[in-house]
Amino acid sequence: MKKYLFSLVLLLSAMTARAQDEIMVNYLGSRPGIVDFVNAILSQEDLGETLGFVADNWDRYRSGMPLGEGVTFLTDAPNGYARFDVSYEGTDRGYTEFCYWNCADGLHKVVAVNTGYTQGGKPIETETTGLDFYTYDNRARTLKYVSAYDMGAVVEASSTVTIELPRKGKDIKATIHDAQQKKYVLMKWNGSKFNQQQVQRTSGR
Predict the structure, then answer these.
(1) Which of 41, 129, 156, 170 has its CA 20 to 30 Å from the CA of residue 111?
(2) Shortest CA distance to 125 belongs to which of 80, 88, 175?
């Protein structure tokens, strides 16, 4: 069984920003929130087509300007979560999620960016879909890219996998879309990274 690194480190043109060693996070107050992390990630150059499109609409959203056709944004600051959705012609849909966790050491945070795409309600893996992580240093106020493998967020599968970041709670849900049944893997937050456990199977698609 092949290991599909959901971060797609070598393929994601949407996340070329990872080549940058550190990303400065600017914020007001005593600590950054989800809006500050999204601002930092989307303010970089050479984001690629997908995140570049998200960034353009994020700037409009933050400025109170009309968004692109079919575009919506949701920001849930208390729960540290943000989501971008776009409806294309027909049944094509795209989305990008952002969320973060406070690490148990009190010195760091972990920020996740998850991008997905569906056609006719079915998930499609492309060069711009996948899950990426950054670690945030509270003292340096910087983000640094870290691989899904290092975060314990690699899913073993021979078919399409979709990821759902938590808006509430701390655990990431992965769905493996096998031909005969769906399998669910829960990536449980342990204070610094994730531990996986299979939680459920259902018949049919």
Answers:
(1) 156
(2) 175
